[in-house]
Every structure is written in structure tokens, then in C-alpha cells.
Amino acid sequence: MSRVIWHDVECSSYEADLALWRELAAAAPGPILDVGAGTGRVALDLAAHGHDVVALDIDAELLAELRRRAAARGLAVETVVADAGDFMLPGRSFGLILAPMQTVQLIGAAGRAGFLRAARAHLGAGGLVACALADAFEAFDEQHVLLPLPDTLTVAGVHYSSQPIAVRDEGERVAIERIRTTLDGDGHRTASPNLIHLDRVDPRRLEAEARAVGLAPQPARTIAATDDHVGSSVVMLRG
């Protein structure tokens, strides 16, 4: 359950991209594949708008929670436990394949190449692949000297907080450090470090990688920054 809670703390409050996914879903000529679906932030929203959605994630625990939430809301969302960088759904094709937030930056260069090949293989006629790319440095440059506010959530009387504390440049990728803390009703506090790596990938590079597997770049879209989250570029690719 801890992975579910921390996923929700750090991801579930983000809503700035939902309008774009709804727009693309409304124009999609077939079902939608949400890659890196987690607990269903995007998949459940699109299902609630009447779309046929398949949610794919490598973490079975997160998808189990997605199914529980879908059932509680009376929504039908199919889930698939698979690696974003190497998935195969025999006989299935999709009108829209989404990789929200930093999914394609989290899976490494080999994983990204595998994702693009798999997306191409599962893309239906007239379909679209849409990949969001976040700016990992934006909140830590010379113009943003204050740390971002922590992501927080209270569950069953326990307060959870995830505070970004540093970004380290590692050449082709960046390391983002967080401190995860909990505080229960008795005043007991825990703290633990968390580290993720994001590949340094801009739209031009991702578009070049996509061309190599037969996907055709379309004009990119943008998702504006909010007070709490950095902005994103969304690379758009057709088969």
C-alpha cells in the first residue's frame, strides 16, 4: 500500500494536462492506451468521459488500486501489467497512445526506443501517440532559488509529505532527490530519501527517435506551468 500512497502524494494532484488528454481522446479513432497509468489519474478521468481505456503499468499494486477505484466509480478500465519499454498486446490496436508526465524520460534510452516500437506496432489507422516531456531543471535554476512546495496528502490520519530538495546534473540525465516524511496523530515522524532519474530529452530528440521507427512527428503541444508544477512539451506522433 505504501507505493500507492506515495504515488498519489507525488502524482495525483496534477491536473494541468487533463484538458489536453480529453481533447485528444475526443478525436481518437479507437480505444486509448494509457502507458504508465499508475493508480489511474488519467485513465479514470478519460473513462469517466466515456472513453474505452486500457491502463498499462509495470506495477501490479498500482493497477490493483486503479481497478478498485474504477469499480467504486462504476467505470470499466482494463488493466495490463507490462513494461512501458517492452509491451505486447496481441491483436490490439489503439486510436490514441498516451505517455503522460515523465514516463518516457523515466524509462531510459533503451526503454524509450522499445516504447516507440511498441507504440508503432499497436497504433491503429489514423492513430496518435502523445508523449509529455517535463523540464527537470525549471524549478532549480538561477531564477528559482526557493525549493518547490512539498507534495502532501493525508490518509487515515497520517500526513504524507514529499519535498524536492535537489536536482543533480548527470550529463544525459538528471537526478531528482526528495525527502519523504510521514507524521501520524501521535506525533511520530518518519523521513526517508527518494531518488529518481529523468533522461534529458527534448522534443527534437524524441521526434528523431520516433522517425527511426516509422512514426511521423506532428506539431507539438504545450502544457503550461502551474504554481506547483513545471510545464511540459507534448510530442505528437502519427504512424
Tags for this model:
239 residues; alpha/beta; Rossmann fold; N-terminal domain of TfIIb; 2 domains; seven-stranded mixed β-sheet; four-stranded antiparallel β-sheet; 7 helices; 11 strands; 28% helix
Radius of gyration: 18 Å
Q: What would you call the shape? A: globular
Q: Note poorly predicted spans.
A: 138-144
Distance between the termini: 38 Å
In the CATH scheme, the class of the largest domain would be Alpha Beta
Question: What's the number of structural domains?
Answer: 2
SS-based structural class? alpha/beta
Structure overview:
The chain is of the alpha/beta class and 239 residues long. The chain folds into two domains: 2-135 and 201-238, Vaccinia Virus protein VP39 (Rossmann fold), CATH 3.40.50.150; 138-198, N-terminal domain of TfIIb (Single Sheet), CATH 2.20.25. Helix content is 28%, strand content 36%. The chain has helices at 2-11, 18-26, 41-48, 60-72, 103-106, 108-121, 203-211, and strands at 32-35, 53-57, 77-81, 94-99, 123-134, 151-155, 158-169, 173-183, 189-199, 216-223, 232-238. The strands form two sheets. A seven-stranded mixed sheet has the order 3-2-1-4-5-11-10, with helices on both faces. The chain has a four-stranded antiparallel sheet with strand order 6-7-8-9. Strand 1 (32-35), helix 3 (41-48) and strand 2 form a beta-alpha-beta unit. The radius of gyration is 18 Å and the shape is globular. The protein starts with a helix and ends with a strand. 35% of the residues are buried.
